[in-house]
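Render this sequence as a predicted structure.
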Amino acid sequence: MENVACRPKRNSTESEFKYLSFNVSSELEKQLEEYTASFDSAKEERDAEAIPIGTTCTRRGCSETYKNADSFKKVCTYHPGTPVFHEGMKYWSCCEKKTSNFDDFLNQVGCETGKHDFSVQEEHKRSKCRFDWFQTTDNVHVNVYAKLINPTKTEIATSDQTLRGKVYYNNQDDIFELNIPLWAPVIPSESVVNISSTKLEVVLRKTEKFRWSDLHFDENK
């Protein structure tokens, strides 16, 4: 029988944040492929004129800087995954070459190749998305409704007490940010993210099987 909601106990020490793994639907993958295939290369060249010389590629693990329009023609070697910090070890979720040395971690060569991304982060429009949540006995589901969510840019991380992240959608043109103090503790290692063509769903595993009275923790309540 599920417990009745009560004021949760907050741990005095918050756990480390864990970047959650993504399950991406085949429908979204197809949409992103079609979008990329139809991308106007002439527009890319026009946009390149607005990129400041020396701008660093935004893909993780790549340090290439923008010189001119030809910079887009060079191969980008990067990490498509997210950084993971666990029990003193540091590694990328995509290749899991573990090291305890932070400099060695930063200098790890990427494991995938593609096109450089010299977009200026400040130009992303911070927007509001339709947002809701529901719960089951075991999990809390947090939904962000958006189209053309970019899994290679999006980051979702959680500790046992806080959910945070950045959702890049409209193929990176817009960004929705999350920073939620959670009503009760969760288990980061058993939580996951599902991304479809219409939404991003964070599935957080409850530490205790009682019903939450809210998603957000408020110490004044």
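Summary. The mean pLDDT is 84. Helices lie at 26-37, 41-48, 102-106.
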